[in-house]
């Protein structure tokens, strides 16, 4: 008789377990598919060039679909395929928001090519191409021309790479005040400001780049308040040399 009772108790436990599992699945199913938990908004962070519309299109996302049916890893992979995006994370946020945080590849310089102009990021990757020169917020690299390269390709020219290394050490405010970086000869560059009276910044040899980047930032920051017209500043020396304009 004791054995029969144990069998009955074991059967009840199994039955209760099955019922509990069914109820749990029903609750989870309702939780996932209830209209309250559908995608109604995309919160895009860190983007200056990428738009919400871009995210929807590239990520193959549809407003109104169940939030928990969205595969965030898959969406992140799709977005990462866009050349403009360096890093991306995608997360759900209840009740109906998708949080997309992007780190964009930013153009740091423009360079002449066979068919027009190319925008380069810090690694030399070509982000954009165009035939007519745009109003530039980034410096133009002169003294070198890129051949047979297109969007997505990487420029491998040694001097261009060195210039990009220098430019990425400069903050955005200073970068926007430089109109041109001229490659004068191998291992020697000169920058020009985009001020009303262009000032030459002789960066010189591509050495002590951290120090020269800091000096460039300080010089450009103080240039507007300098009462004396400057012809050029030379960072080749231990102490910067400033030549006043006549």
Could you explain the architecture of this structure?
By secondary structure, the chain is an alpha/beta fold. The chain has two domains: 35-104, Ubiquitin-like (UB roll) (Roll); 109-244, Rossmann fold. The protein contains six helices and twelve strands. It has helices at residues 2-33, 52-59, 72-80, 158-167, 172-175, 209-223, and strands at 41-45, 85-93, 97-104, 109-113, 116-120, 126-130, 140-146, 178-185, 188-193, 200-205, 230-234, 241-244.
In a few lines, what is going on in this structure?
The protein is of the alpha/beta class. It is 32% helix and 30% strand. It has two domains: 35-104, Ubiquitin-like (UB roll), CATH 3.10.20; 109-244, Rossmann fold, CATH 3.40.50.
* CATH T-level fold name of the largest domain: Rossmann fold
- CATH class membership of the largest domain: Alpha Beta
Q: Termini separation (Å)?
A: 115 Å
Rg, nearest Å: 29 Å
Q: Uncertain runs with pLDDT below 50, 5 residues or more?
A: 1-5
> How are the strands of the largest sheet arranged?
6-5-4-7-8-9-10-11-12
Query: What is the assembly state of the chains in this entry?
Result: single chain
DSSP E strands, number: 12
The description of the largest β-sheet is: 9 strands, mixed
Enumerate how many helices there are, as a single number: 6
Order of helices and strands: HEHHEEEEEEHHEEEHEE
Percent helix: 25-40%
Strand composition percent: 25-35%
Mean pLDDT: 86
- Taken together, the total number of domains comes to 2
What general form does the structure show? elongated
- Give the helix/strand class: alpha/beta
Q: Using the 3D structure, state the CATH architecture of the largest domain.
A: 3-Layer(aba) Sandwich
